[in-house]
Amino acid sequence: MDYLLDTHIHTISSGHAYSTLTENAAAARLAGMALIAITDHGPLTPGSAHELYFMNFKAVPAVVEGVEVLCGVELSILNARGELDLRDEVIRHLDLVIASFHGVCMAPIGADGHTEALVNAMKNPHVRVLGHLCDPTYPFHVEEVVRAARDTGTIIELNNNCLKPGSRRLDRADALRMYRLCNELEVNMVAASDAHHHSAVGRLEHAKAMAQEAGIRQELILNTSPARFKDILSQGK
Ligand SMILES: [Zn+2]
Ligand SMILES: [Zn+2]
Fold this sequence. Notes:
By secondary structure, the protein is α/β, with parallel strands linked by helices. The protein contains 8 helices and 8 strands; from the N terminus they run E-H-E-H-E-E-H-E-H-E-H-E-H-E-H-H. The protein has helices spanning 21-30, 51-55, 88-91, 111-123, 142-152, 172-184, 205-213, 226-235; strands at residues 5-9, 35-41, 63-64, 67-76, 96-100, 129-130, 155-159, 189-192. Helix 4 (111-123) packs parallel to helix 5 and helix 5 (142-152) packs parallel to helix 6 (172-184). The longest helix has 13 residues, at 111-123. The mean pLDDT is 97.
């Protein structure tokens, strides 16, 4: 089955990414994507956009360069309470909210603390995806987190960037164990590029390889149908 959507893309508004929304959309069309989500970093990442940026998405057309565009954000988890760097009043209006650990916003606090942070972030009804969980800098208790993902209806990301062999953000054995457990507990997953330049948009080969190696059932990977993905988002948590 073809992957038709890429749900994690940064633009120049993130402050350390290098392509515009339009350049990303054009690259997505060439890569065969029907839908993308623009997910710039939250305001606490140095150089990223002010919250006003996330409040003005009505300015963005629903379709750009022939590709459907969802307007979202990749927030940083800030502490064990699972607090994030944009207010609920702002994120409740966005199409897609990803929550991730980033060193610039939260120093590692140990596996117990990371687990608590992830579980608490998932309790936020607006957080729909946990981003790049394969990062060994932020170890966590896999079973507890995957069970919480199942219980809260949170999607786990297959981050192509992190899953690249040799990535500093990858412990492959841990990642495999986590994705196998996601499969076993029927947690939805989505492959995403985490592109910081348009040349990476729609590149999902490492995510696909992990999905295959972990034996994930096709129906648990949400990339094959934009309609189904949007349907799941619209159902809420
Ligand atoms: Zn990230
Ligand atoms: Zn990202």
